[in-house]
């Protein structure tokens, strides 16, 4: 009977080793000196090192990219507490640098990994080894990243004007409302520019609507390259645009507006065999006067724009220059 039991134990051990070798996860058993005691087929296939080459080697020699301080702390806590530990790819994309060979997710060079650390209790009831299990979660991680990227793109599309790439009116007004609340609360300054393309209908009538779209896109690109990172620009509608300039009063905004107006005046938009030139008119208002709402700031800048248009176009007007009784 004793011989049969020994035979069954050996047979069972052989089966367990065969299962471990064929599992589609990385299995590494380390002693307390971080030397490799077990190295399964997954580890061999992805590392390029055979069981013989890895056996009794330091884990840090095999994977120099692993932070020794972090790894030692992680393993010591597993040994001391006798409790499993885990890492997930969202916190640490991978433990060891294995190349990704998943055909569906070929755009990611490295394998995303989750890991489990299991304390192994010896016959003396002490934890003398730790089993490290490495899971390939590249497909799930890549799918999650792609979904997050798609959601970000959809969110941006909801906020952006399709023709220009600037903030659309709804989103820009919401940002203005938030900024106005912040500025009025802390008594800080901001200036608002509203401007539109002079004689835009004439451009459409003369060159066609495709040419008009090109002019709008050219102006949008100029806005993006001229505005500061902190400025909030948007397409207000049709050929009308807005820029909110935080921390700027009307005089500072006027200096910017004059430079910008001259850049627009010198801009050439090629269309078919024609070169299209155009100008803009600008109105400016700031928070130097008490305002009840962000809509009133828009109204003031719009009144200044109206004066620019009536004054001959291709000019900049401050709200303070608007007559109180037009």
TrEMBL record:
GO terms for cellular component: plasma membrane. It is an enzyme of class 2 (transferase). GO terms for biological process: regulation of DNA-templated transcription. It catalyses: 2 GTP = 3',3'-c-di-GMP + 2 diphosphate. One of its GO terms (molecular function) is diguanylate cyclase activity. Its cofactor is Mg(2+). It holds the Pfam family GGDEF. Its EC number is 2.7.7.65. Residues 188-321 form the GGDEF domain. It is found in: Cell inner membrane. This is diguanylate cyclase. It comes from Azomonas agilis.
């Amino acid at each position: 009977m004793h011989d049969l039991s020994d035979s069954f134990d050996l047979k069972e051990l052989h089966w367990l080793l065969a299962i471990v070798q064929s599992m589609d996860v990385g299995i590494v058993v380390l002693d307390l000196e971080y030397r490799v005691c077990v190295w399964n087929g997954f580890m061999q296939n992805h590392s390029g090192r055979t069981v013989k080459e890895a056996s009794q080697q330091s884990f840090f020699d095999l994977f120099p990219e692993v932070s020794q301080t972090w790894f030692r702390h992680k393993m010591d806590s597993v040994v001391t507490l006798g409790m499993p530990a885990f890492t997930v790819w969202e916190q640490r994309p991978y433990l060891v640098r294995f190349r990704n060979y998943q055909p569906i997710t070929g755009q990611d060079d490295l394998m995303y990994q989750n890991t489990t650390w299991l304390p192994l209790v010896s016959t003396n009831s002490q934890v003398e080894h730790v089993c490290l299990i490495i899971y390939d979660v590249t497909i799930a991680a890549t799918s999650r990243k792609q979904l997050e990227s798609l959601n970000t793109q959809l969110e941006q599309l909801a906020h952006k004007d399709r023709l220009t790439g600037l903030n659309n009116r709804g989103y820009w007004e919401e940002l203005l409302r938030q900024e106005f609340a912040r500025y009025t609360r802390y008594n800080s300054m901001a200036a608002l520019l509203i401007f539109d393309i002079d004689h835009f209908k004439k451009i459409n009538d003369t060159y066609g609507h495709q040419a008009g779209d090109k002019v709008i896109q050219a102006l949008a690109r100029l806005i993006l390259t001229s505005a500061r990172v902190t400025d909030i620009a948007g397409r207000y509608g049709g050929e009308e645009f807005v820029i909110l300039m935080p921390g700027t009063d009307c005089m500072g905004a006027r200096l910017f507006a004059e430079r910008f107006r001259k850049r627009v005046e010198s801009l050439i938009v090629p269309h078919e065999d024609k070169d299209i030139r155009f100008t803009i008119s600008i109105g400016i208002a700031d928070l130097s006067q008490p305002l009840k709402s962000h809509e009133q700031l828009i109204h003031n800048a719009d009144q200044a724009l109206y004066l620019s248009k009536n004054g001959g176009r291709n000019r900049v007007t401050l709200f303070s220059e608007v007559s109180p009784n037009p």
